[in-house]
Amino acid sequence: MLVSTASVLGTRVSGTARRASTVLVTLLGLLALTFFIGRVMPLDPVLAVVGPDADSSTYDQVYRAMGLDQPIWVQFGLYLNDLLHGDFGNALLTGHPVLDDIKRVFPATIELATLAILFGIVIGLPLGVVAASNQGRVGDHVARVITLFGYSTPIFWVGMMGLLVFYAWLGWAGGAGRIDLAYDGMVPDITGLLLIDTALAGDWEAFTSALRHIVLPGLILGLNSVAYISRMTRSFMLEQLSQEYIITARVKGLSRRQVVWGHAFRNILVQLLTVVALAYGSLLEGAVLIETVFAWPGFGQYLTSSLMLGDMNAVMGCVLVIGLIFVALNLISDALYKVFDPRTR
């Protein structure tokens, strides 16, 4: 019994060690690839600091101060050493530490992406179930059209049309930014999430303003998630509806609703965990176009501005955060797999 317990514990420890080493190698490879690509890009970070009118001596001084005179592998080693000490460097764009900038802009993207993924779940899951349970009929065709629209329509075009119709013409939605200028800076910064902060402060006028600003970009950003989640749900459901246990359930006289939702849908919940997790991660790092169209001061806009400026400290910090997000979401989905599906334990 003791030998068996020790064997199980040893297996778990070795599995955890392998997982940890895989995560570290993945993040290191991601950082190395981004760092080397950043060094060969036709952008000069020195000019972003000194300006195009600086003399050659000033340029050379800043060039050496930034460590660009060192071999590229030495530069990467120095960057990793700073990273291990919690130093992400300073951003050229703002002059502030990169980590502080990310802490400032990331809540705006979390708020936007969370609304988008909720929209994707609420619409995408039922849409995929309806499509699978009505294969080849009207419901299936309607779901396919919606999925095609979500995949193929340029999101920046939908964003501009949404602003034109719902903001400029109808006046239903808020304009650019996260909140009206009258409330900007008036809400206590507790969590960085405006909807939560305004609610905690009891400022319901500011809450309404923040809600009017986030609904339109959040729903438009969620279109791709609706398409992805509904498509995967339909595929999983079709596989389940062709299984023998579904035929047995129908023979027993169970209603269509019980068969579809009580049996088939319950058996795909575990698979959908990974789908939703990956969709959420994609929203967190892929909200660039929507943030640009709606002047949303979030993570995507910060990353794009830093990339255009050649600010590799900020770009590297953002890439590391994105990598950590995807790794964390995959680990969480694996853990939930083991909770909800005993066969994976």
Write the layout of secondary structure elements.
Elements: H1 2-40, H2 45-50, H3 56-65, H4 72-84, H5 98-133, H6 138-152, H7 155-169, H8 194-201, H9 204-241, H10 244-251, H11 256-264, H12 269-285, H13 288-293, H14 299-309, H15 312-340
Helix pairs in contact: 1-15, 5-6, 5-9, 5-12, 6-9, 7-9, 8-9, 9-12, 12-15, 14-15
Structure notes:
This protein is mainly alpha-helical and 345 residues long. The chain folds into two domains: 19-84, no CATH class; 101-269 and 283-302, MetI-like fold (Orthogonal Bundle), CATH 1.10.3720. Helices cover 75% and strands 0% of the residues. The chain contains 15 helices and no strands. The protein has helices spanning 2-40, 45-50, 56-65, 72-84, 98-133, 138-152, 155-169, 194-201, 204-241, 244-251, 256-264, 269-285, 288-293, 299-309, 312-340. Helix 5 (98-133) runs antiparallel to helix 6. The model has no long low-confidence stretch (mean pLDDT 83). It is a multi-pass membrane protein. It is found in: Cell membrane. InterPro entries: BPD_transp_1_N (IPR045621), MetI-like (IPR000515), MetI-like_sf (IPR035906).
